[in-house]
Input
Amino acid sequence: MILERLQEGIVLGDGGMIFELERRGYVSAGPFTPEAVIEHPEAVRQLHTDFARAGADVLQACTYYAHPEKLKDIGMENALEDINKNAVLIAREIADTHGILVAGNLCNTWVYDPKDISTHQQTREQFEAQIYYQKDHGVDFFIAETIEYIGEALIALEAIRATDSPSMITLGFKKNDLTLDGVRIEEAFRRLEDAGADIVGINCFRDPERMLPFAERVKNSVSCYVATQPVAFRCTEDRPYFQIQEYDGRVAFPLELDPFVLTRKEMASYALKAKKLGIQYIGSCCGSAPHHIRAMAEALGKTTPNSRYSPQIELHKIIGDAAHTKEKDARILCEQRYGKAQCHLIGQKE
Ligand SMILES: [Zn+2]
Output
């Protein structure tokens, strides 16, 4: 089904479930595990609903880090089945209400070590366990995301291909264009395509500006569908990924990233740039919230269920059009009409 949708046109992904649930109080920063799917399903249901109403075509089951290695850290290894199964059931319920798709979700295992063969089997077992508990509850396709080793990504792909579901594999790149096992972007994605991936791409770590140049190289290297899911946190050329941004002399990740959140207009502009590059699956990752998704959807020409509540600035009493403005503050009125540069004297006189 995902492949048919992609054939018809761009598929819009959703936003960062885990970071947004953390912000809302239902995920602990640190473990960043999704036990909320069994402890507070209503919170997960609401966020899926928010992304669906913002125009997402796909809901990713909230199973990021729902693998044994991470569940062990919070003493919930025994909830592996419950979390994976319930996450898919919740996503399915909301997706069906909106006629959209559900992606099962796998991610970096933190177990894989390219030099230690024994970890490859452990990695495979983690992927297989998550797939086993997700696959029969309404998954349309699987996304394996945020993987930094091509070796680990290929194991995830094999595990997905053992099911009948289409596969989307996205790698994460932090400081450069190499996987952590030393394979350059072009080669890495060719290997994934050759191994049968239906959709390949990049997700997390980098903001749109730092991700799209890499995505263009992916696009030029493969003939399968390409996906981008950047973070909605501002990065720079010197600091190209979100984990090393600094705020007030401290590392901002993960608790002080608020000043780095991209605006909805920046995310809308990202969606258009990605479209221009020929990216077919345009989504987002950490930091991206429903308002970003709606702006992206509308930029791509879509009317969403919540477009009913999209901005109507002209009706605003302070910054609206002439017929609606009742504001008396001269500086606001001047800046609104003539721009900041023309109006600085007004502020000074007062
Ligand atoms: Zn992310």
Q: What stands out?
A: Residues 80-98 form the longest helix (19 residues). The chain has two domains: 2-309, 313-349.
